[in-house]
Write a structure and sequence with these properties.
Blueprint lengths: L3 E6 L6 H14 L4 E5 L5 H8 L7 H25 L3 E5 L2 H9 L5 H9 L7 E6 L2 H10 L10 H12 L7 E5 L4 H12 L2
Parallel strand pairs: 1-3, 1-4, 2-3, 4-5
């Protein structure tokens, strides 16, 4: 079977992790070998990047950590898994870097160019969409305290940046103001297997 590369994006609180898990379970039930991962990763660079939501680094330092983490992720996991014909499903990818670092003053288009020089484009990009206030309500309901990435004004701008991608053929904006099972049903229909 041929490989399949799926990325699930969206602002915090839209249910990305749940949808990654459900989609992976579904593909496994179809007999496919599935690799799931997330960005930032749990590698050295990813841990440093993840911590920057609590101890804020300069915008330049933060962006460099994301780029180093992604380059390692592509080389060590994404490319080998795709080469082996597996389904790869990511919870965040360079589109999040475009959105969240775009909020810090970087040009999202430049971030995209820098990433696409080494990072493969996904077959499907699912942008899980939800009103910012509803997303913040979900973040609070799960017991989390909003970090620097999750401030309302940042999430509004991030959502705007994500929505600039919606006209592209591999991009699907999915409304998550419904049950996780309803969202999952739409993702499966969009994959079309």
């Amino acid at each position: 079977m041929s490989s399949l590369f799926i990325v699930i994006e969206g602002i915090d609180g839209t249910g990305k992790s749940t949808q990654v898990r459900l989609l992976a379970e579904w593909f496994r039930s179809q007999g496919r070998e599935v690799i799931t991962s997330r960005e930032p990763t749990d590698g050295h660079w990813g841990k440093l990047a993840r911590n920057s939501g609590n101890v804020r680094l300069s915008a330049e330092e933060e962006l460099e950590l994301f780029l180093k983490d992604r380059a390692e992720h592509v080389e060590q996991l994404i490319q080998p898994s795709l080469a082996a014909g597996k389904v790869v499903i990511l919870d965040r990818y360079y589109f999040s870097t475009m959105a969240y670092q775009g909020c810090r003053g970087f040009d999202p288009a430049d971030i995209r160019r820098r990433n696409e020089a080494f990072a493969p484009m996904p077959d499907f990009l699912f942008i899980l969409d939800l009103d910012v206030d509803a997303a913040l309500g979900r973040i609070g309901a799960r017991g989390d305290i909003a970090n620097e990435f999750e401030k309302r004004e940042n999430l509004v701008r991030c959502r705007e940046i994500f929505m600039t991608l919606k006209g592209e053929s591999f991009v699907h904006v999915v409304d998550t103001n419904r049950t996780p099972d309803e969202v999952q049903e739409e993702l499966r229909a969009l994959v079309g297997l």
